[in-house]
Amino acid sequence: MGWGDLGGGVLGQPAKETPNLDQMAAEGVTLTDFYTANPLCSPSRAALLTGRLPIRNGFYTTNDHARNSYTPQEIVGGIADFELLLPELLQKGGYHNKIVGKWHLGHQEQYLPLKHGFHEWFGAPNCHFGPYDDGKTPNIPVYRNAEMVGRYYEEFAIDKHKGVSNLTQMYIKEAVEFIEEHSNTTKPFFLYWAPDSTHGPVYASMPFIGKSQRGRYGDAVMELDHGVGAILRTLERLAIDKRTFVFFTSDNGAAVSDRAASGSNGPFLCGKQTTFEGGMREPAIAWWPGQIKNPGTRKRRLPGKLEVFTRVELMLSVKFLCHAEWRPVFFYRGNEMMAVRYGFYKAHYWTWSNGWDEIKVGIDFCPGQVLANMTQHEQQNHTARPLLFHLGRDPGEKFPVRFSSPEYDAAMSPIRRIVVEHKRNLVAGTPQLNVCDVAVQ
Amino acid sequence: MGWGDLGGGVLGQPAKETPNLDQMAAEGVTLTDFYTANPLCSPSRAALLTGRLPIRNGFYTTNDHARNSYTPQEIVGGIADFELLLPELLQKGGYHNKIVGKWHLGHQEQYLPLKHGFHEWFGAPNCHFGPYDDGKTPNIPVYRNAEMVGRYYEEFAIDKHKGVSNLTQMYIKEAVEFIEEHSNTTKPFFLYWAPDSTHGPVYASMPFIGKSQRGRYGDAVMELDHGVGAILRTLERLAIDKRTFVFFTSDNGAAVSDRAASGSNGPFLCGKQTTFEGGMREPAIAWWPGQIKNPGTRKRRLPGKLEVFTRVELMLSVKFLCHAEWRPVFFYRGNEMMAVRYGFYKAHYWTWSNGWDEIKVGIDFCPGQVLANMTQHEQQNHTARPLLFHLGRDPGEKFPVRFSSPEYDAAMSPIRRIVVEHKRNLVAGTPQLNVCDVAVQ
Ligand SMILES: [Ca+2]
Ligand SMILES: [Ca+2]
């Protein structure tokens, strides 16, 4: 989902179809400058759960330069044991942990959620790709805890043609029941609710089909929004809302290349798969009645997924703080640091939309957007003189700060120092996502 | 100002710097599908005040095909006496009327506001262009009622270089004092508050300089927002808020061609001067405590400036209704009907961004946006087979509905009938904006 997929208040998504998320924002805090650590699903989720950049936690590939990669079924890699995951950390604090939905941190036995801090799981190791033949490529399995209980398109029906599936309803039910079960105990709980219906092939359950003004994608967004509402209302009904912290975000910006299911990244450039704002700036709402001062406000200074992790560490000592200072945000694509944000400035060291091989078959990560030296189809190295944008004046990354201006020198000076330090301290993990599709060996 | 210039709630403008407009929206109704009648100032304002398309009320030019035009100082035309203006209509209903700020419906004596239904005026017949030499082109005059009281850049200072002027503060003071004076009488009042600080050269008063995260343009938006707050708080303080209807909108989408003062049109295509959504979809908020049911809600079905006029006619009998049915919206550029919207569908009969002559000197109405057959620099006639978009699924007008699809035929069938009827009934007014700049005679 993208920044522009949320509605309420004044003039976000024109269709205004996310009343529950809007209410969550009105009662909580919206973080306007929140970033994912990667514009693609697996690395983003690995970063969320480890608090470390994909290049550190191994969720990247060296197959090719600046290549995005995830965990298809063919992948042999996954999350390393020595990584300390959020549920593992919470387990030490006495939490009971459940994941509902998509995992994406590795398919093999040793990589599954129950080996990495979760006590319960209902969902799948991968997206609902398929249907596949029953031969070489089996359909994606669905698990209840450590046990496989069926497969997508088989026991867990998805009508890809009509875009209909009951899966999100099942995930909602799992979440509500888990909260109900654990509301009366003294033991705290952690629920990682990770539905995947807005990922292509987009689906919704029958009551949501055709409900949206935005087509199938909008139907799926409405059902997700409904799920968020069901979860928050459950917390209120059980009177545990004042001791439950809820955080909403997405793994990457909306995919905008598919005309039938295009999400919205609002005023931002491009979308999923890119390190432009449209690929990495995420909707992010924190909710905790009674604990969040000034409900309905917005904060800029909480820059990204790695922060969520730090924040949860703090929460174990029941503290919820906002950093008063900017921290740098690094934008990686595969093995390359493409850009850095510091304060309002974002410097692009490398730029690329996607390659001609994909463009030729109609895949375009930036449809309708063409900016010289930014969205071109060959990778460009600007390391000697990065392209600089002021995201306050120019959130769409359209008007680069002039190289010859005093502003350029003043902004780039701390950024250059930050990059030197970052690269000096970087210990790259073993790439887990090599051989990330059948075509690349 | 553009759709994307407003902040609050969830995820509109990333900088979130319009708390007063956001509060107004939370207490009122946001109209998500509200259009101006023209993507340029003079024709848009003429349409707002007459309730008629510029091609009917004469605010267009036949100098050139599909040419935008306004009222520079050299213009001899203006608003015709026989047009029934909103203040004239209200005068019949016993209202006392004042305009504060920019008029733009003609410079000559006979076209000024006090000849067309306003009882009071403080402002100028034109934007704050200049400074000019004192010879051939005098600076724009500023009026109090029928009397000229000075000129921009002379008695009414604007520091164009620093972007500083006290004008918006003067306009706020005028508005508040007018409301105070008329709050105790039994006679109803109408205030047309038309500040122009977000128009280039953008300005703000000293307390707002550097206050925004968005540069000078953001400073001006913040001061406007502050003015809206001052007006609403005055109504509340005088306890007349429950009998005062307030409507906020803009004359055209944000200009996006100026890197120093680029507004935001959110997810929409291009900006001011174009008939794409970025040029004509406007922020629009209606506020009337006690009268508006379900505060904070959004309505799609109140399609444009012409509706405001109808609505005010209804208000004279103290009624505020929302149409339950879609009405067609016509998108004109000068003398040409460029596009039509009906329901969720928008059909482009002509497309154009702007010409090569302007592009060569760096003026681009669609910076960074390139869509085949849409944003090109020559006018294209699609009348035989209009380009069709579904604005629910695709608010950015990126993915045309396929010509060969059943959807195309189903949607175009009523639109073709609507266009035939519109053209048959159209009585074009005498063009008032010919000779619209010195270069065109
Ligand atoms: Ca571990
Ligand atoms: Ca008249």
TrEMBL record, chains A, B:
Residues of the Sulfatase N-terminal domain: 7-297
Keywords attached to this entry: Calcium, Hydrolase, Metal-binding
Membrane spanning residue stretches: none
Annotated signal sequence range: none
Pfam families documented for this protein: Sulfatase (PF00884), Sulfatase_C (PF14707)
Cofactor list: Ca(2+)
UniProt family annotation: Belongs to the sulfatase family.
Name of the protein this chain belongs to: LOW QUALITY PROTEIN: N-acetylgalactosamine-6-sulfatase-like
Organism: Priapulus caudatus (Priapulid worm)
Lineage: Eukaryota, Metazoa, Ecdysozoa, Scalidophora, Priapulida
Protein encoded by which gene: LOC106818036
